[in-house]
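Q&A log
Question type: sequence-to-structure
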Amino acid sequence: MALLVVLGGGESGVGTAILGQKVGFEVFVSDKGEIKDKYSKVLEHFEIEWESGQHTETKILNADLVMKSPGIPDKVPLVQKLVENGVPVISEIEFASKYTDANLIGITGSNGKTTTTMLTHHLLLGGALNAGMAGNIGDSYAKMVAEQNYDHYVLEISSFQLDGIVDFKPHIAILTNITPDHLDRYEYKFENYIASKFRIAMNQEASDYLIYDADDPIISSWLNKNPVQSKLIPFSLKEKQQIGAWLDNNTIRMNVEHKTLEMSTDILALEGQHNVKNTMAASLAALLVNVRKETIRQSIQSFQGVPHRLEKVLKINHVEYVNDSKATNVNATYYALDGIKKPLVWIVGGVDKGNDYSELMPLVREKVKAIICLGMDNSKLKEAFGNVIDLMVETYSMEEAVKVAYKISERGDAVLLSPACASFDLFENYEDRGNQFKSAVKNL
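Response status: OK
Response body:
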């Protein structure tokens, strides 16, 4: 019996272990950290062998196949040893896709991928299609393949997951945008990160589709130099497209595979230009899988949005509190600063991923009246904005940050948590950070 070793006992790892066992592998799960109770209980239930707090190298190097959790960098010595020994090291999406014939819609990009994934799934369900949503969001894709029988999967896919693919091929790929992110994992070379994102299309054929932002100069120039096999379906806010989606004054127009669709931007439940783009991408995918036009229009109006992404929490003394904890990079924060039309008290900071804050400067000068730093090391933020903003306060807990914001904000302001950084210095993850913000606001 072939041995499948799963490195990492989180959502994707445990899902892979369940599917691996089901399809006939001997499975061993190994996590250098602690495996959470909810996951170890599942492994016990399925009688899958596991260890935590260590990696037993002799056993791991004996593997026939290794699934590596996306959080483990490729340059970890154990992973390098596996590769040198000729053991294939793949990601969950690569493994799970071998065991399903479902139609795959894969969505990647630096920003907007969660919203686009949730909206695409919402449109497919609205069209009464039997569709699951997985990947970087919600439940494990491998676990779904093991336990459900969906006709379609809408997958949110990170660059780390794409780094571990060999044959993975979505029928419809969506690339929302590419801006510098996670450069610490790509030797601080932007071109390595771009190449990683484009792996989503590397196995696509002429019968497949790549939906992409034609306004994104990085995507356009890469496609000029590195043509793909799939049919290109661009969307744009700036220029009319022959095929794809474009904005005509206040109307979104679409034309794809002899289907046309028009809808007013007034019906969109989500605010902001970036959400017009997310809507275009999701609607194009829905048209390609034959969801009816009227259904798409109705579903667009009923979509609720994503938690921790420009989520309005409360209004206190005429001050709006907005949770944008999901903004873990500069570009996501740019959308937030750009989208809110009030004077801002901005809570920012965390683990810097090689950020360049200069693109935020015009918006900060125009809108931000005070900055509250929330991180263990705020030196880069102080360097970037210290001379521009009169009031800058350093804090080391969410409760403290929110109290300071409450003191310095005035009627008509907005207090915005949009960190532009990862959360791991003070929080478990961006959800934990956002939830702490919401409860601190509610306790004011």
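Response note: The two ends are 59 Å apart (CA to CA).
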